Fold this protein.
Amino acid sequence: MTDSRTVTGMGVFGAARWPTFFVNRTDRLGRPLSVASPDPKDSRKPDYTRRSVLFTGAPGSGKTVELDRAEKLAKRQGWPSIRAEASATEPLEVRFIRGVSERLGHIRRTLGIRAWWKARKTVRALRARGKNPAQNGAELRLGIMPVQVIGKRQWDAKAREELKATVLQLADDLSDASSKRKLPLMLIVDKLDTADELDLVLMAELSGRLQEKDQAVYLITAGGEMTSTRLVAAAGARSGAGVSAARQFDIRACDPMTVAESHELVTKPLEHNRIAYQADAVDHLVKAANGNPRLLRDMADRAVQVAGPNGITADVARTAVKEIDTEAQIVHQAAWNVCSPTEKELLAKVAVQGASGLSMPGVGGPGRWQELDEARHALVVKGLLQEGPGGEIVTVPDPSLRDWVVTRVGRDIAQKGLAPASQAPAIVQPSAAPGTPADGRQTTTRTAGKTTYSMDTR
């Protein structure tokens, strides 16, 4: 066996978005989760009866990885593809047109000079609009051409409608060109959890257009766990047809990996690199990650880094989990700090229930249902809570966060409400050395990875 000290974790498990080994996951219905075929030699088109796919899930659940796999499939087969990310600061139309601008050379190679000419003409028209002195905004560059880009709050309804019409026409042109060449076209959009209502309306209408044309054009998207609900709501606020289009999406939930899938994610790369491991060590890593592929890779990566000549033993696994959990405390504190009092209360009530979670219908007294439901929605969007299949049971999917919240608040008080700040140690302002702040707090220094911070020990 290879001494694990001679192989870096990056070399064994790859990067977060580009893992060295893919687990062929299935959804709740037992269907393959991925758009892309796991076999590099397989040139089949994506096996989806619907033209639009939406991957949903908590942060770290593998949504972006699935989009990357789809993009790699298109590149491997020589298919045209356009990729964009939704943003809280720019209209999705601008992001999409920027994606087209950055791929003009790719469009020319895959779809020909006519499709390239049409796409370039569209981008140039947008550049001309950007020179209108009546508009305000910061000048950015789309490819080689400067374009006036205006923040979302500065776009009026008419301007957004014009942009949407431009994107829909551009998508039509690209799909027609790809159809003539008998090539599948992939339109890939990530981070729809940051999209506003008009962005989601664009996605619904684009999905409807693709379905009507019945061409080999695929809209592959990803967003948080509430994205599908928001998509239908946004489309419904505009038109009934929008709701119908939004429902054309094939929703693929990136649920927590099964125990078998988690074991495979860890053991296959280790065996490929001839690194020794103990079964109970892998069990410990799998249990600590609780089905989160990104967290599991991080923990397994750390285990490889700290392992000795005997490979990954149970003690090594415990050390790796402890180190990752310690570093995660800073992230947990930051997430806690941006929660409202009601969100903190609900998060604590759910965390104290452990892995079984909490039934939402039984939470709260008279008059509090709407308040707590809004808090549930916000926590799901943030990735701090996860809903069960029926939506009634909510859990804190990250065991590390769950334990941190219970320690932070206190188990008994979490059953009733929020604890005062002095009930448990809380991470405070980063500090290079221990000391006593001006307000009289007693602090001690802790180190997590390369970060040093102080903890309030009153």
